[in-house]
């Protein structure tokens, strides 16, 4: 009698299948199917349901490779034809008959006892685990980016096959695309005896834990020495998951002595690099302190925000302006902290600066307190991170309240008469020309009035020029009270005034002129030699179709004014 097989020998040979094994496996919740030459010959009820079929007839007769998604189809065919034997389960995407897919852990068992090219395929739905894994990967984007940019080869393996390789690894192994390595046995990247060792006993590599010198193979067959570190990862499946890191050390590991020397040198380099990092850190701290001192020394309010408009920091001038502490506004937006008008303009400037990656300037009205408002000019520019992507906006503010007040005062002095506060001659002529052009363009009525104080010289000679100035100002005040806001009033010189009545015909203008005449006649000015009373003469001229300029209309009004004086003064005349 032959020696009885031990349990370990039976496990290494894999499961044994009898003729009725499919009937036994009907109780399984996993997909189980028998394949012959890669074609499905039978499937259990759970597998038929998992594939979205209504009956076994829809599955039997199909090539199993057609039920597999992605780049695994060719590998699956080799495994089903028993050209390669994979002892461990591996992850793969299985297709529904309706075209959809689900993630599964697949294992292929040779079933030669049932016939040549017979294989039993088992698949466990791991979609839920896959979703959990994707969620975990989504939360590790930063880590994945660091791995992708690593200077060393990094592999993520499932079972004995490569699932992920970073860009550095593709280049180190002489490839051009990660797909060249996806799904291949991890042992294929090792050279010579190392390949056989890894293929025969992957667990030994995992159990080492530390850094190992080994030899790797490129796609073109050339080899190089590398330091390898394999780290086993937590895994819920039967097949182990692990990460392999490799660093090319060709030329450094020629002999054991050279390796020892390299280790000594590496320790020295680490110590030197540590010192360098300490020095760099000290310089960075010093530079940061300098920048912070510089920002505090800037006399203008200065701040910086992120791309969502939230304050990240601000200097002492900013805190003093708004009366806030160092962290009061951190994480807040402008819209939450200042008046809506300023916030709207500031937000638009932020958007423009980020879109154009340039400098934006604007003027606005900022309310810094309930009883205090400023006119300010703000300059904003984008600041960039290490990858040159916009990280936010820096702003600096200049208080131009006093400048605005002075500009307004200069405009007032340049456009108004000092004595009366109404338009001076030059500005009156500019505004009158605008109104005449508008009336001509739209065919609207317009009337000009010329008026002055009757016997003004007599007032000056009798009561003195100060009283004469009071009379001129009194006439200007009466005109301002009677005419409308949209009408134009100006002092032409001395005691002479001009008025442009917009949207007014001749009849309406005569009514206004008469009211003016009566109001002036009622003026009384107290003086040392007695109360001063005076009258005015008014000339009225309507805009005619042929009048091209205000000068023509004023000339006729002036002629009418002198006509009123010749006929006795204190009268209204039409020119």
Cα radius of gyration in angstroms: 48 Å
Major sheet: 5 strands, antiparallel
- What is the spatial order of strands in the main beta sheet? 2-1-5-4-3
* Average predicted confidence as pLDDT: 86
Total number of strands: 20
The assembly state of the depicted protein chains is single chain
Judging from the principal axes of the Cα atoms, what is the shape?
Answer: elongated
Determine the N-to-C terminus distance: 146 Å
Q: In terms of structural class, how would the helical and strand content be classed?
A: alpha+beta
The level of helicity is 25-40%
Percent range for β-strand residues: 25-35%
Number of helices: 19
Low-confidence runs (pLDDT<50, min 5 residues)?
Answer: none
What structural keywords apply?
single chain; about 575 residues; alpha+beta; five-stranded antiparallel sheet; 20 strands
Textual characterization of the structure:
By secondary structure, this protein is an alpha+beta fold. 40% of the residues lie in helices and 25% in strands. Strands 2-1-5-4-3 form a five-stranded antiparallel sheet. Strand 9 (223-233) and strand 10 (241-248) form a beta hairpin. Helix 8 crosses helix 9, helix 16 (456-463) packs across helix 17 (465-482) and helix 17 (465-482) packs antiparallel against helix 18. It starts with 6 loop residues before the first helix and ends with a strand.
């Amino acid at each position: 009698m032959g020696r009885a097989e031990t349990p370990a020998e039976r496990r290494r040979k894999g499961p044994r299948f009898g003729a009725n094994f499919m009937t036994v496996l009907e109780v399984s919740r996993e997909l189980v199917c028998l394949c012959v030459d890669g074609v499905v010959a039978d499937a259990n009820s759970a597998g038929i349901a998992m594939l979205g079929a209504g009956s076994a007839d829809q599955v039997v007769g199909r090539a199993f490779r057609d039920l597999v998604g992605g780049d695994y189809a060719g590998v699956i065919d080799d495994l089903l034809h028993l050209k390669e034997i994979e002892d461990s389960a591996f992850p793969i995407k299985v297709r529904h008959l309706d075209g959809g897919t689900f993630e599964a852990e697949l294992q292929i068992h040779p079933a030669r006892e049932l016939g040549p090219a017979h294989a039993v395929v088992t698949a466990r739905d791991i979609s839920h685990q896959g979703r959990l894994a994707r969620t975990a990967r989504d939360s590790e984007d930063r880590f994945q980016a660091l791995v992708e940019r690593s200077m060393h080869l990094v592999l993520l393996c499932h079972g004995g096959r490569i699932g992920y390789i970073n860009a550095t690894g593709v280049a180190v192994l002489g490839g051009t695309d990660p797909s060249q390595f996806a799904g291949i046995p991890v042992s294929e990247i090792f050279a010579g005896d190392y390949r056989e060792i890894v293929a025969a006993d992957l667990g030994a590599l995992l159990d080492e834990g530390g850094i190992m010198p080994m030899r790797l193979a490129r796609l073109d067959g050339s080899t190089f020495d590398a330091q390898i570190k394999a780290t086993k990862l937590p895994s819920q499946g039967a097949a182990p998951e692990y990460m392999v890191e490799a660093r090319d050390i060709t030329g450094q590991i020629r002999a054991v002595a050279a390796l020892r020397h390299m280790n000594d040198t590496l320790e020295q380099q680490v110590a030197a690099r540590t010192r360098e990092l300490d020095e760099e850190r000290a310089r960075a701290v010093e530079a940061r302190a300098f920048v912070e001192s510089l920002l505090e020394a800037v006399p203008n309010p200065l701040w910086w925000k992120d791309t969502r408009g939230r304050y990240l920091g601000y200097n002492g001038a900013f805190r003093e302006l708004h009366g806030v502490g160092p962290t009061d506004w951190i994480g807040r937006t402008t819209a939450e902290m200042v008046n809506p008008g300023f916030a709207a303009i500031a937000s638009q400037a932020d958007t423009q600066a980020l879109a154009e990656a340039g400098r934006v300037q604007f003027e606005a009205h900022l309310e810094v307190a309930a009883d205090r408002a400023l006119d300010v000019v703000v300059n904003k520019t984008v600041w960039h991170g290490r990858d040159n992507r916009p990280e936010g906006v820096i702003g600096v503010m200049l208080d131009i309240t006093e400048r605005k007040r002075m500009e307004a005062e200069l405009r007032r002095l340049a456009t108004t008469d000092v004595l009366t506060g109404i338009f001076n001659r030059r500005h009156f002529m500019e505004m009158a020309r605008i109104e005449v052009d508008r009336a001509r363009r739209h065919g609207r009525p317009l009337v000009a009035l010329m008026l002055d104080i009757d016997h003004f010289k007599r007032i000056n000679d009798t009561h003195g020029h100060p009283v004469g100035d009071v009379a001129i100002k009194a006439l200007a005040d009466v005109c301002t009270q009677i005419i409308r806001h949209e009408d134009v009033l100006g002092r032409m010189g001395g005691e002479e005034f001009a008025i442009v009545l917009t949207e007014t015909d001749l009849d309406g203008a005569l009514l206004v002129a008469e009211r003016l005449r009566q109001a002036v006649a009622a003026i009384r000015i107290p003086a040392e030699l007695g109360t001063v009373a005076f009258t005015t003469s008014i000339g009225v001229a309507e805009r005619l179709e042929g009048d091209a300029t205000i000068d023509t209309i004023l000339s006729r009004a002036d002629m009418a004014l002198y006509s009123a004086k010749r006929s006795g003064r204190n009268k209204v005349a039409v020119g």
